[in-house]
């Protein structure tokens, strides 16, 4: 059994909990992994790789992700979300126009300092473990890409609905924290729903209850489903021996060295290849068995 599950992760579970739950319904020894961690209290789209799909993680994980978040202004927490300890409570005197202006400053290529309560490692130890011991150093800033950060309107007293489209590595709760800091009143993320992760969107996601009821097999997406952003190369049967042995084959003309492509042997998805300097197409992930 090989393919991808588009799982609607509920709040209150870790992404690893979802993997364990899915694995229980599969044959013993089936490899299962998730593509992009969601915080335990967050909900939404969680791609789950089953079988040979686990070999394709690196080729779809850096695609755009889209979120609906709630920003609560005037309250700063140590985790930058609603689960943390309140550090400060401040007066809020801002307009929606000021909020939209602050959003513009956090859109595009920015440098973001990840939260202390995160899975990033420092000296081999995750920051959240250090934070719980009261000894977490501040993480170093790193470049990330925020494609869009939009205010969708008020959601209650000092609360706003926000839409975020971003690339790999962005912490949405840090975006909400930084918005509050820019506005001078502080803030935190009080709700998060991931609505899209690359080719996986919430409209076609399945709950864990649905997966348990129908079984995973009818819900699996094909191995190449989330990889349509890569160009396709189709090889005929004369390349069968080389492909099945993982040997390089001549690359089609017009592809630059370093280009990563989907490779098909006749109609079968064979894996991921990369064009070398000598015009050879070498496999980076071979899926045929």
Query: Over the alpha carbons, how many angstroms does the gyration radius reach?
Result: 22 Å
SSE arrangement, N to C? EHEEHEEEHEEEHEEHEEHEHEEEE
Class inferred from helices and paired strands: alpha+beta
The number of helical elements comes to: 7
Which range does the strand content fall in?
35-45%
Number of strands: 18
Weakly predicted, low-confidence segments: none
Overall spatial form? elongated
What level of helicity do the residues show? 10-25%
Termini distance?
A: 13 Å
Describe the structure.
There is one protein chain. The mean pLDDT is 91. A hairpin with an 8-residue loop joins strand 2 and strand 3 (43-50). The strands form four sheets. Strands 1, 2, 3, 4, 7, 10, 11, 12 and 13 form a nine-stranded mixed sheet that branches. Strands 14-16-17-18-15 form a five-stranded mixed sheet. A two-stranded antiparallel ribbon has the order 5-6. The longest helix has 12 residues, at 172-183. The two termini are 13 Å apart. It is built from seven helices and 18 strands. By secondary structure, it is an alpha+beta fold. The chain has helices spanning 15-24, 57-60, 96-105, 127-132, 172-183, 208-214, 240-244; strands at residues 3-9, 32-34, 43-50, 65-73, 75-77, 86-89, 108-112, 121-122, 125-126, 142-156, 159-166, 187-197, 200-201, 231-235, 249-250, 260-265, 268-275, 280-286. Helices cover 19% and strands 37% of the residues.
């Amino acid at each position: 059994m090989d393919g991808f599950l588009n799982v609607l992760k509920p709040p209150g579970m870790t992404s690893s909990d979802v993997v364990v739950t899915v694995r229980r319904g599969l044959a013993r020894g089936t490899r299962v992994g998730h593509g992009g961690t969601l915080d335990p209290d967050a909900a939404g789209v969680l791609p789950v790789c089953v079988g040979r799909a686990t070999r394709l993680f690196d080729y779809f994980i850096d695609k755009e992700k889209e979120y609906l978040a709630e920003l609560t202004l005037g309250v700063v927490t140590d985790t930058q979300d609603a689960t943390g300890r309140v550090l400060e409570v401040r007066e809020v005197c801002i307009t929606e126009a000021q909020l939209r202006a602050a959003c513009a400053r956090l859109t595009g290529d920015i440098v973001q300092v990840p939260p202390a309560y995160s899975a990033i490692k420092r000296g081999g130890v995750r920051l959240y473990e250090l934070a719980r011991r009261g000894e977490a150093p501040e993480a170093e800033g790193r470049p990330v890409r925020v494609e869009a950060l939009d205010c969708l309107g008020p959601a209650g007293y000092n609360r706003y609905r926000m839409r975020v489209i971003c690339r790999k590595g962005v912490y949405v709760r840090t975006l909400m924290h930084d918005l509050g800091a820019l506005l001078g009143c502080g803030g935190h993320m009080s709700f998060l729903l991931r609505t899209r992760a690359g080719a996986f969107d919430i409209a076609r996601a399945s709950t864990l209850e649905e997966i348990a009821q129908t079984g995973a097999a009818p819900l699996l997406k094909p191995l190449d489903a989330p990889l349509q952003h890569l160009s396709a190369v189709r090889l005929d049967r004369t390349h069968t021996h080389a492909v099945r042995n993982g040997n390089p084959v001549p690359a089609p003309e017009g592809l630059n060295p370093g280009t990563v492509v989907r490779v098909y042997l006749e109609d079968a998805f064979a894996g991921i290849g990369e064009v070398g300097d000598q015009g050879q197409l070498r496999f980076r992930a071979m899926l045929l068995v």
